[in-house]
Amino acid sequence: MSVTVIVPDIGGAEGAEVVEIFVAVGDLIEVEQSLIVVESDKASMEIPATVAGKVLELRVALGDALSEGDAVLVVEAEAPAQDSTELAKPPVTQAVAAEAEAASEVGNGSQDGSPAALSAVTESTDSGLQEPEPPPAAVSTSPAPSQEVAQTKSESDVYAGPAVRKLAREFGIDLLSVTGSGRRGRILKEDLQAFTRKNLQKSAEILTGTGVPVVPEIDFSKFGEVTVEDRSRLDQMTATNMSRSWLNVPHVTQFEGADITDLEAFRQSMKKEAEQLGNKLTPMPFVLKACAVALGAHPKMKSSLAAAGKELVYKQYCHIGMAVDTPAGLVVPVIRDVDKKGIWQLAEEIREMAARAREKKLTPVQMQGGVFTISSLGNIGGEGFTPIVNTPEVAILGLSRAEIKPVWDGESFLPRQILPLSLSYDHRVVNGGDAGRFLTDLAGLLSDVRRIIL
Ligand code: CAO
Description:
Helix content is 28%, strand content 24%. The chain is α+β, with helices and mostly antiparallel strands and 454 residues long. The chain folds into three domains: 2-91, CATH 2.40.50.100; 94-136 and 156-201, Dihydrolipoamide Transferase (Irregular), CATH 4.10.320; 234-453, Chloramphenicol Acetyltransferase, CATH 3.30.559. Helix 7 crosses helix 9 (432-447). The chain starts with a strand and ends in a 7-residue tail after the last helix. Bound molecules: oxidized coenzyme A. Oxidized coenzyme A (CAO) binds next to helix 7, strand 18, helix 8 and strand 21.
């Protein structure tokens, strides 16, 4: 027996537009299965089937304007359509409607051939609360729609059919976060898929440590004349290394001022001798040597994390890296066995390594194996800075320009030469106490360089 399914009472809406069609001629449909979605100015409504059977004819097309009583499709029914007595059943809740949807999707909906009746329900929000409307007038073969009206104020812009809402609920997707690509911003199944894909991609990026929002590229020529230069490979590598360390290492920087008045007096007194030797004495070799002594007393400061953080590698050697500013970019040659070398030798190696760095003559081996790094901006200026740890090392020392400062000795202010030290460290390994003790010892060694040889 063929039955024509018609548009039921859709809340008085006239000319509601057909925005989705879920079935085609020849499909086997079940009771309560969604057939089409119509959309009026204020609501979108899903029209479910009231009979089970085979679709013989579709009487609607996308964009058609439908009103109560218009034909939707013709079905070769398996059983007689529902009668008016059944339609008088109490209205269903949203939960019941959702279950019916689920059942119809997996193919085990009402199978007994008796037509189901869905009274009109009004979804007030996605929270599952709804206010049932009065049952529709008894019209055989006419289902009541599962109706969605405009949401609460904050959700009032969300338009989506019940199937899409159900899918969103199953995947825990907040429809307010999804941009609809359908007419008038209606959210389609494809929009949920795109939303999920995008979020999965985001999660993957976060897991691999690249989940940092990308800085958008800007066409600066819009604002004025520009010139563009290629960056050196060294600059690009430095950028990668800095980002890697910055993103992986929880940095803390601690500051200290070392009184190098006596060291400076000694250094100045040695300058002539240095010249005669063809050498040059800057504060750097003293700082290198003092660091080697302090690192020997605080081995954790020259350790490295291993086995995904389960182990700490203590190094029995003391190779120290020294950042060198070159026209091609920043390089860090490593001075080997600093603990075993004297000040003259260190001064010579500093000059040699800096020269090789500027002439791009450093070998890879000469830039490997450091346990700690010193970055000196003393010849350039500044009161202090926060260097980035040269991972997998766990600490780096920054030197700024030494200056005469008034220091209170208990009775009066004395002019003392103070070297600003800034120690950045990997807080996964080094605690504030470790760093504080190391830096205090280092400042003490620089204040009285005689202690370096003890
Ligand atoms: N305070 C005051 N004066 C300082 C000083 C300090 N902390 N450090 C060095 N000076 C003085 C030196 O004594 C020297 O002066 P004199 O000739 O009168 O003695 C002058 O500054 C120049 O020193 P230098 O730079 O030639 O030698 P250095 O041993 O101090 O440093 C090197 C060597 C290679 C570390 C340095 O040349 C360099 O490249 N520094 C830049 C490092 C850098 O870029 N760090 C940042 C990395 S992160 O972007």
